[in-house]
Amino acid sequence: MFKKLLVHAALVLTGLILAFPAAAHYIWIEQDKSHHARLYFGEYQEQERETSPGRLDEIKGPRAWILDAAGNRNEIKVVRKETHFDLGVISDHKSPIIAEELAYEVKNWTRQGIGIVKPMFYTRFSPLAEHTAPKLELMLDIVPENGSPNAFTVYFQNAPLAKAKVMVYAPNFWMQEHTTDENGKINIKTPSPGQYVLEVIHLERQPGEFQGNKFEAFRHRATLTFDIPAGAHENKASNEK
């Protein structure tokens, strides 16, 4: 009897594990030291990157742009690879990169307590070199305040989004959870050099239809990626002495 209960529990747990990842995935951009940019689908904090053939193919038609100094969008060619979408080498490495995936199919995530939704994915890579307020470009957007590595504002439809839960994933994959204030702002800690990913979800209860499938709400999900160079922490420590 006990063995049967263990087997049943294992099957239930397996079902939950299989059910939840679909609703937990997001897109994010990484840029290496040679300024080669890549778009991933998965979960950064779990070190999970989907592949093709496979779940990476759920991302049907992502589009990406570089934002120049004047705030203009310059579209980047997006090339599907086995482990990511290649965005190429970014010559102007001080410019932000944005991308979005709006063609993700309608999902019935009722079992996960989410409902029947149309997922919408957005992402921004920020070099944190901007000294002016970044221009808002995405339906759901996370932007640094004047290039700060610690202060950020979340916007939905160009308006600050209050009481939004923001997850912060650090270079060693530990997590912080923050909630935006009435002005959509959060302040985070960046104790280590390396890559950070911020993530936010907003459920817009607006029913609709996509590709013949009706849904109850839009589920917007956005990320922001930035890198803290090792020297930044060393300089900060020196200044505090």
- What general form does the structure show? globular
Helix content: 10-25%
Annotation field: number of helices: 2
Number of strands: 20
SSE pattern, N- to C-terminal:
HEEEEEEEEEEEEEEEEEEEEH
What portion of residues belong to β-strands? 35-45%
How many independent structural domains? 1
Q: Indicate the structural class.
A: mainly beta
Q: How far apart are the first and last residues' alpha carbons, in Å? A: 65 Å
Radius of gyration: 19 Å
Query: Whole-number average pLDDT?
Result: 87
Oligomeric form of this entry?
Answer: single chain
Main sheet?
A: 9 strands, mixed
**Low-confidence runs:** 1-20, 234-241
Q: Which terms would index this structure?
A:
disordered C terminus, five-stranded antiparallel β-sheet, single chain, 241 residues, 20 strands, disordered N terminus, mainly beta, nine-stranded mixed β-sheet
Summarize the structure.
The chain has 241 residues and is mainly β.
How would you describe the overall organization of this protein?
This protein is mainly beta and 241 residues long. The chain has one domain. It is 14% helix and 44% strand. It is built from two helices and 20 strands. It has helices spanning 2-24, 230-240; strands at residues 26-31, 36-43, 48-49, 63-67, 73-76, 79-80, 85-89, 97-101, 107-109, 115-125, 140-144, 151-156, 159-160, 165-169, 175-179, 185-187, 194-204, 208-210, 213-215, 217-228. Strands 4, 5, 8, 9, 10, 14, 15, 17 and 20 form a nine-stranded mixed β-sheet that branches. Strands 1, 2, 3, 6 and 7 form a five-stranded antiparallel β-sheet that branches. Strands 11, 12, 13 and 16 form a four-stranded antiparallel β-sheet that branches. The longest helix has 23 residues, at 2-24. It starts with a helix and ends with a helix. The model is unreliable at 1-20 and 234-241 (pLDDT under 50).
